[in-house]
Amino acid sequence: MKSLKENFQKAHIVIIGSGIIGKFNALELSELGFKVTIIDPTQLQNSSYAALGLLMGNMYQRRRGRSWDLRKESIELWPQWITFLQKYNSELNIKKPLIQLTTNEEKFKKLEKFIYENNDQNLRILERDSIFIKNINKAFQTKNIKGIISLKDGRINPFSLLQTLDKYLKHKKISFSEVEIIKIRKLNNQWISTTRNNENIKSDMIILCNSLKAINLIDGISHNITLKPVLGQAMEIDINDAEVDLLSLPKQFNINGKNIIPKSKNKLIIGSTDEYSTKPEENTFEKLTNFLDKRPNWLIKGKISKKWYGIRSRPDGEPSPIMKNLEDGLIICTGFYKNGILLAPACSKWVANEIKNYFS
Ligand SMILES: Cc1cc2nc3c(=O)[nH]c(=O)nc-3n(C[C@H](O)[C@H](O)[C@H](O)COP(=O)(O)OP(=O)(O)OC[C@H]3O[C@@H](n4cnc5c(N)ncnc54)[C@H](O)[C@@H]3O)c2cc1C
Questions:
Q1: Single pTM value for the model
Q2: Is residue 209 within 6 Å of ligand 1 at its C-beta?
Q3: How far is the CA of 115 from the centre of ligand 1 (A)?
Q4: CATH code for the domain defined by 98-151+228-315
Q5: How far is the CA of 186 from the centre of ligand 1 (A)?
Q6: For site-directed labelling of 207, which of 32, 87, 116, 137 has its Cα 20 to 30 A away?
Q7: Nearest CA owner, ligand 1 atom 10
Q8: Cα radius of gyration rounded to whole Å, the chain
Q9: Centre of ligand 1 from the C-alpha of residue 338, in Å
Q10: Does 50 contact ligand 1 (Cβ within 6 A)?
Q11: Extents of the domains making up the chain
């Protein structure tokens, strides 16, 4: 009888879409011994490159159900993958901690309840006289900010992560095809992916990791999946105020739903918005900086030095993400409207288990 690994080595898997989900699946499957091909015509413009990279795992307040299970698994897998990927980029890491703040008393009460109920040493309420609260109040000229700190959550730099994955994939000689797939079909137990130039790529399996466009490749009658585009915008702001040192702030934090990442003494990143749209609007600055009753002057006067957006896919009528075995040899892994970076390890593991069962 042939060993499983022998079966795996013979099997060819095509991954359509090279965002974080496609790349992570390629990593997982290549480590299992499969022959992998990734296909993507425009990978540098995807939503993965637009992400801020916050890994909000332990902070997630619903501690049951599929969404929590995926988070929990990813939180456990991330440190192992970081150690593995550091062979390709020794600087890759997760910067901790993560801080969630609010000026809304009711929201704070919920956070407090969550902390008391969970009794987790790595999740704490920030004391009023903590250095974090003091420095945030000083910089943002606020008095009523309260919040929690998660010592085990943090941020991974998405650009660095994607580049490291590319380095790994190149090292493993994984084929990459810079083309668009316009059709897939099954013929005599093989899958055929047809490119826009009418070339056919044969494989034993296909994994659809191409976000919104995944539904264009599947039969809408047999598979009732709807995805809606959700725009996320972020920007980098330069400030000019000698009194404010942004590096005195935590490495990454969230105030009233906006994520803030200080980059230098006078530069910070703010993101992100959630809009059911595909076109960025002009008033991004207002939308992203209006998270306090009164904005500090340095923020009002701040100048946008960079602005970007990404379009994510949100499942309509079912929870995010969509991970399904659509038919023999066809898996879909999409609908990551939020948290695609966080969830990539757990979702790739789910796909790998499905594939291992298929070839066993
Ligand atoms: C501003 C912003 C901030 C965010 N912040 C965070 C965060 O802090 N933490 C977090 O976890 N998540 C965050 N996200 C969400 C995260 O970016 C997404 O969940 C994640 O990137 C989804 O990855 P993906 O691989 O599914 O999709 P994508 O990265 O969009 O990749 C899909 C790929 O499929 C390719 N493709 C499409 N059609 C075809 C085709 N026919 N043939 C071949 N290839 C095709 C596309 O070119 C694309 O490269 C943020 C998103 C945005 C926009």
A1: 0.97
A2: yes
A3: 31
A4: 3.30.9.10
A5: 27
A6: 87
A7: 339
A8: 22
A9: 9
A10: yes
A11: 4-89+157-226+316-359, 98-151+228-315
**48 CB near ligand 1 (under 6 Å):** yes
* 4-89+157-226+316-359 under CATH 3.40.50.720, yes or no: no
Q: Tell me the CA–centroid distance for residue 114 and ligand 1, in Å.
A: 30
Cβ–ligand 1 contact at 25 (below 6 Å): no
46 lines ligand 1 (CB under 6 A): yes
Q: Is 340 in the pocket of ligand 1 (CB under 6 A)?
A: yes
Question: Pick from 100, 108, 101: which is nearest to 58 by CA?
Answer: 100
- In testing the pocket of ligand 1, which one of 14, 25, 46 has its CB within 8 Å of the most ligand atoms? 46
Pocket flag, ligand 1, residue 331 (CB < 6 Å): no
User: Tokens at residue 227, please?
Assistant: 């995805």
